[in-house]
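## Example record

The block below lists the input lines for one assembly entry, exactly as stored, with component labels intact.
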Amino acid sequence: MIPEGGAPIAQSASGNGTDRQEASLHGEILLRLRDYVVEGNIPEGARVPERQLCEMLGISRTPLREALKVLAAEGLIELLPNRGARIRQLSQRDLEELFDVMAGLESLAGRLACEAITDEEIAEIERLHYKMYGHYLHRDMHGYFQINQRIHESIVAAARNETLRAAYANFAGRIRRVRYSANFARKRQRWAEAMREHEAILDALRRRAGSELSDILFEHLRNKRTAAIEHLAEAREATAATAAGG
Amino acid sequence: MIPEGGAPIAQSASGNGTDRQEASLHGEILLRLRDYVVEGNIPEGARVPERQLCEMLGISRTPLREALKVLAAEGLIELLPNRGARIRQLSQRDLEELFDVMAGLESLAGRLACEAITDEEIAEIERLHYKMYGHYLHRDMHGYFQINQRIHESIVAAARNETLRAAYANFAGRIRRVRYSANFARKRQRWAEAMREHEAILDALRRRAGSELSDILFEHLRNKRTAAIEHLAEAREATAATAAGG
DNA sequence: CGGCCTCATTTTGCATTCATTTTTTATCTT
DNA sequence: AAGATAAAAAATGAATGCAAAATGAGGCCG
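Predicted structure tokens for the full assembly:
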């Protein structure tokens, strides 16, 4: 007997760019669960009872468990033996490591992009850059961040390396929930720096200076990391205090 | 009823460095299957009937299928809908991409290593380097390759980034079977070049010149890639000819 | 004689069931 | 009353059963 209360399955969710394997229940479930987790719909460290998810998704435990195993392999959740699944709690160290790996991958993407990028693609990135500059001038954080992400994705796409793109998407998914909250909210100085770095990125890209671009991208992401970690540490302290204080 | 003909389960195989999750049947199966595939015990593109694997491993299909899903997520096998698992056939393009990603990760590892590596670790790598040089002088390919791999692993270890190490191990596993056969068998010139590059790597490492080391490592791996792809293309042509010719 | 269609067999996908382990709760002891 | 203990409830891990899809064989038609 299949419970019918849950959400419909068919609507393939719009995703984070990782591999899509449609049409098989567990594949569909995987996509939906991944997005669900990545979007941050479940609090960190929270237990995820299988039964509940089954009802929510309207399926039996078998395909669900298969999907959970994959998500665990991707690093999104933790699977404690005999104790079920938990949303993976990222320690500060984990985040530092993830940011560094992302930096390495983008650095690589920039280097490869210089070998293959077309003038049209560069023009498109320039267009995004100036649009982003507009958001910066208007202090529109949300718009800025969105375009910023598109620029970085464009660079990864220009690398013409599907394996790299998939790996990048995977790591991006792991830190996505943190990344959203890890902007230089009030740090205007850092924001200005980031803009300058982006100009340098564009410049190196125009000149197809792969090695140089690689360096700039790494440093850029490194600075992002520092800002994000600081921000997150403050946020966690705050929530810890709230939790403790009542 | 559990068939008892198969191999015993308990012996945790020595592995490729990816995450270990012992003690749960599917975890044990995952380790064994991964090693089994990585070692190249199954020909490329071959179908792997679940039933047969179940008998071989002495388990039911449920944990096996969970393990297969994970291996597919890791990129070691392919899971065609309703058509079962195949050992993933790596196209030449796939290999190029994989080598580039490996190059990027090692490049990153070198950069990070320069920030944290101790004098003792450098000394250890130097020791390996000279040992490798000995193998080079004696034209001992196998010994050379083994030490070479240990050097690269040492650099990754020195990066002090567990996330990076796991990703590196994953990608290394995917191309392991190819890598073994992808040496500069008769190309003595390339071998000499590789030795020179290794000296440059050591030099940059001693000076903790992260950005420079990053460049050198990338180029080093890039050259390796070229050699490997060429070698593999020849090998595939040969086997194709053999298969066609009878 | 070769290509196509139909049917039997095999294999995969999923649900259900059984066995263990964990977690909770109620009771008992100190 | 607090802690420990044991039984009950719930959740996980694995196996089995059933339906659907794919593969292969055999016959039919051109």
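Residues 49-51, 61, 65, 81-84 of chain A lie near DNA strand D (CB under 10 Å from a C1'). The longest helix of chain A spans residues 210-245.
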